[in-house]
Write a structure and sequence with these properties.
28% of the residues lie in helices and 24% in strands. The strands form 2 sheets. A 4-stranded mixed β-sheet has the order 1-6-5-3, with helices on one face. Strands 2-4 form a two-stranded antiparallel ribbon. By secondary structure, the chain is α+β, with helices and mostly antiparallel strands. Helix 1 packs across helix 2 (68-85). A hairpin with a 3-residue loop joins strand 5 and strand 6 (102-109). It has helices at 34-48, 68-85, 143-152, and strands at residues 10-16, 30-33, 53-58, 63-66, 91-98, 102-109.
């Protein structure tokens, strides 16, 4: 289940260390070092958004059983979305913390947030809080909908 975005555009996941999380099909389950994968995604995002203020904080490699390709796409979409829609120059932070039975991932931006009446719609295809869906506002409007499909399986 996807998290509900809150006013600070804070996305939070808890991935179980074992058994494989919902982000995997049994066929593609492998040991994934989430901290290493997040570093790769953050490095890629910084190349695409060189003026961004993007930070990463992890407490180790943080292993989980998951589909690495799907996790990469999930993190890329959420981080990219935060960088595109947060005010220019505002910080986007990515945090991952290992716990006894799971890894908690938090992606936070300092944007204006999403109005309470719109929070249930952010994962719909081609919907945007700013009303720019279908008007060439920087993408197809599918990134968060793809994230929902990944998480829902």
């Amino acid at each position: 289940m996807l998290p509900t975005p809150i006013a600070s555009c804070d996305f939070l996941w808890s991935l179980p260390v074992s058994p494989p999380s919902v982000l995997v099909s049994a066929l593609f389950a492998v040991g994934v070092a989430v901290g290493v994968l997040l570093k790769q995604v953050v490095d890629e995002a910084e190349l695409l958004h060189p003026a961004s203020d993007l930070s990463l904080s992890t407490n180790g490699p943080l292993g989980v059983l998951a589909d690495e390709g799907r996790l990469h796409q999930l993190f890329t979409n959420i981080i990219g979305n935060a960088l595109r829609f947060a005010p220019m120059g505002s910080e986007v932070s990515v945090e991952a913390e290992g716990r006894e039975s799971d890894v908690v991932i938090r992606i936070r931006d300092c944007g204006p947030g999403i109005a309470p009446q719109d929070q249930g719609r952010v994962f719909e295809r081609v919907w945007r809080a700013d009303g720019s869906a279908g008007t060439g506002g920087g993408g197809a409007g599918l990134g968060l909908a793809i994230c929902k499909c990944i998480v829902d399986g």
